[in-house]
């Protein structure tokens, strides 16, 4: 049953979808808006995490002077380094995610255009009738 789908209990052909037979020609249009907003959010998070590493270092400067000789100082340093690695990893992930989301939006737009162009010969022949 190539090119046939069941919609609401009725059999339809792909050519019927553009002729008021169950779907408008513009219903399956892609919008890159959600992808681009998500990419912007990931970039904003990357930017907001930028100063956190230096703020963490600044916050720990006073701790070192006041706790000299305590065993907890070594553990505190290890915890700080762990957080610094996590912050940098999160920033890198956000940067990568922003690019990937933009790539998805671009790829979907390209795919939509390719599909539209592939149907152009059928439309030129009067809907393939």
Distance between the termini: 17 Å
β-strand number:
2
Percent range for β-strand residues: 5-15%
Q: If helices are DSSP runs of H or I spanning 4 or more residues, what is the number of helices?
A: 4
N to C succession of SSEs: EEHHHH
Strand order across the largest sheet: 1-2
Radius of gyration, CA atoms, in whole angstroms? 28 Å
Return the average pLDDT rounded to an integer. 79
Amount of helix: 55-70%
Structural class call reads mainly alpha
The major sheet is characterized as: 2 strands, antiparallel
Uncertain residue ranges: 1-7
Structural write-up:
- The protein has 129 residues and is mostly helical.
- Helix content is 69%, strand content 6%.
- The chain contains four helices and two strands, in the order ββαααα.
- The protein has a two-stranded antiparallel sheet with strand order 1-2.
- The longest helix is centred in the C-terminal third of the chain and has 53 residues, at 72-124.
- It is rod-shaped, with a radius of gyration of 28 Å.
- The model is unreliable at 1-7 (pLDDT under 50).
Helix and strand layout, with pairings?
Layout lengths: L3 E4 L2 E4 H4 L15 H17 L2 H15 L5 H53 L5
Antiparallel strand pairs: 1-2
Helix pairs in contact: 2-4, 3-4
């Amino acid at each position: 049953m190539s090119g046939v789908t069941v919609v609401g209990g009725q059999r339809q052909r792909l050519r019927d979808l553009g002729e008021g037979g169950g779907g408008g020609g513009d219903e399956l249009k892609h919008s890159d808006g959600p992808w681009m907003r998500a990419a912007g959010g990931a970039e904003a998070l990357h930017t907001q995490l930028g100063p956190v590493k230096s703020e963490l270092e600044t916050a720990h400067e006073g701790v070192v002077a006041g706790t000299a000789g305590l065993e907890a100082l070594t553990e505190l340093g290890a915890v700080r380094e762990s957080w610094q690695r996590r912050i940098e990893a999160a920033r890198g992930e956000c940067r990568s995610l922003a690019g990937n989301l933009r790539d998805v939006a671009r790829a979907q737009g390209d795919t939509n255009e390719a599909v539209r162009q592939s149907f152009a010969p059928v439309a030129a022949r009067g809907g393939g009738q």
